[in-house]
Automatic annotation (TrEMBL):
Keywords: Cell projection, Cilium, Flagellum, Signal. SMART domains: SEL1 (SM00671). SUPFAM superfamilies: HCP-like. The lineage of its organism: Bacteria, Pseudomonadati, Pseudomonadota, Betaproteobacteria, Burkholderiales. This is Flagellar motor protein. It comes from the Bacteria.
Length: 445
């Protein structure tokens, strides 16, 4: 996990955000000259930005100092930033800059508190002091600073700069998550899943991770897929797990390929498929996944047939391409499953799954095969309406077997009202391509 520390390299952006864009009404000038610190800060901001008056960093610094000396926390912070950066022709002075930022932080300015924490934790311009850094983060976080809450969650979980404290990490990540921060919400879900700093609770993990997965967060999809596969805290849902893990895997995640291997090795019914498990483990190995390599070696040693499976490169290569969306490979995997090639028996439901993926990408042969499976009730509930739909899609792409099938359905009134004209039209189109059964059908009419 990475944390975006607030550091001196981005201070110029902070200056613009903190100053905003003010105008220079006469009331502001009068109030500033009368010694009102709020007006003095606003006037300093006007001169610094050059909006409402000609840009004049030195004059800006003068007004910031006047407000800062009256204990105006934001002016103290801005004066400190300008001195730390040495911007706008202002001489850089780290010692003075730090002194003003410390005064601002002591006056509960959360920006200053976060700045000091970052400087102390990263040893930027000051000696590293993790205890001081965390103390300033704590003060900012207690005031509701999202940045501080996330950084505290990170440092307490990481345990590098300070002793690890998973309970405190969870506490601060939860505080940030409740402010709708997506990274913190993911961390809360992950910690519930792992039982880090909180009692393990997969149902709570799913609650936090589901909205993130719905928004496309890949890490959330990976953990959520594992939760639905393992069925701990939620009912097992292999279909949902497969969809989630597949979506992550095709984007290049070795861990997701490994989890897909586990799913097909340990799943139930149509989701228990040793050959697919081996194929997914093989793909995970390409991403240098150690556990996948170990499991493949174990499978090879368990039985000769399993060893042969590991070497079945045709299926593996097709599956690797299929999960990346290659429609020809998806069709080929469907054929493997339909024929039971390399399996103990055909798996029509699995064949339907792969044919559908290819058919939805417009692959005519897959569309025709889906038509026959719907017509015969193989792997799906028999549906002549669905058969007609898929035959038509393939026939319109000049697939001769589909044109013949569509013609016979019109001829015999299967799933559609008998229509001799439509029957002849489609049979003729198939015959014109030299399709023998269509020629024979026309000759008998």
């Amino acid at each position: 996990m990475r944390v975006r520390w607030f550091h001196v390299g981005v201070l110029s952006a902070c200056l613009a955000a903190a100053l905003g864009a003010q105008a220079q009404p006469s009331e502001t000038v009068s109030a500033a000259e009368a010694g009102q610190p709020v007006a003095q800060f606003e006037l300093g901001s006007i001169y610094f930005n050059g909006k409402g008056a000609e840009r004049n960093p030195k004059e800006a610094l003068r007004w910031f100092r006047l407000a800062a000396e009256q204990n105006h926390a934001q002016a103290q912070y801005m004066l400190g930033l300008v001195k730390l950066l040495g911007v706008g022709g202002v001489e850089k002075n780290l010692k003075e800059g730090m002194a003003w930022i410390q005064k601002s932080a002591a006056n509960d300015n959360v920006d200053a508190q976060n700045m000091l924490a970052s400087l102390y934790l990263q040893a930027k311009d000051v000696p590293r002091d993790p205890a001081a850094g965390v103390a300033w983060l704590e003060r900012a976080a207690q005031q509701g600073s999202l940045t501080a809450q996330k950084n505290l969650g990170f440092v307490y979980r990481k345990g590098e700069l300070i002793p690890q404290d998973l309970k405190k990490s969870f506490q601060w990540n939860m505080a940030a998550a409740q402010q709708s921060d997506m990274l913190a919400q993911f961390v809360v879900g992950e910690m519930y899943y792992l039982g880090e700093g909180v009692e393990q609770n997969h149902a709570e993990a799913a609650k936090w991770l589901t909205p993130l997965a719905d928004k496309g967060a890949q890490n959330a999809k990976l953990i959520l897929g594992k939760i639905y596969f393992e069925g701990q805290g939620v009912p097992p849902d292999y279909k949902r797990a497969l969809l989630l893990l597949h979506d992550v895997a095709i984007r290049g995640s070795g861990q997701a390929f490994f989890e897909l291997g586990r799913l097909f090795e340990q799943g139930e019914g149509e989701y228990r498929n040793e050959k697919e498990a081996v194929a997914y483990y093989t793909q995970a190995v390409k991403y240098k996944h150690t556990a996948a390599a170990k499991r493949l070696a174990e499978i090879s040693a368990e039985s000769p047939s399993s060893g042969e499976m590991v070497q079945s490169m045709e299926y593996v290569e097709n599956l690797n391409s299929a999960v990346r969306g290659n429609k020809l490979a998806q069709y080929n995997i469907g054929v493997f499953q339909y024929l039971g090639k390399g399996f103990e028996q055909p798996n029509y439901a699995e064949a339907v799954k792969w044919f559908t993926l290819a058919a939805n990408q417009g692959y005519a042969k897959a569309q025709y095969n889906l038509g026959t499976m719907h017509e015969n009730g193989e792997g799906v509930t028999k549906s002549l309406a669905q058969a007609l739909k898929w035959y038509r899609l393939a026939a319109e792409q000049e697939d001769a077997p589909a044109q013949y099938a569509l013609g016979t359905m019109y001829r015999d009134g299967l799933g559609v009202k008998k229509n001799a004209k439509q029957a002849r039209r489609w049979l003729q189109r198939a015959a014109d391509q030299g399709y023998g059964p269509a020629k024979s059908a026309l000759a008998r009419r």
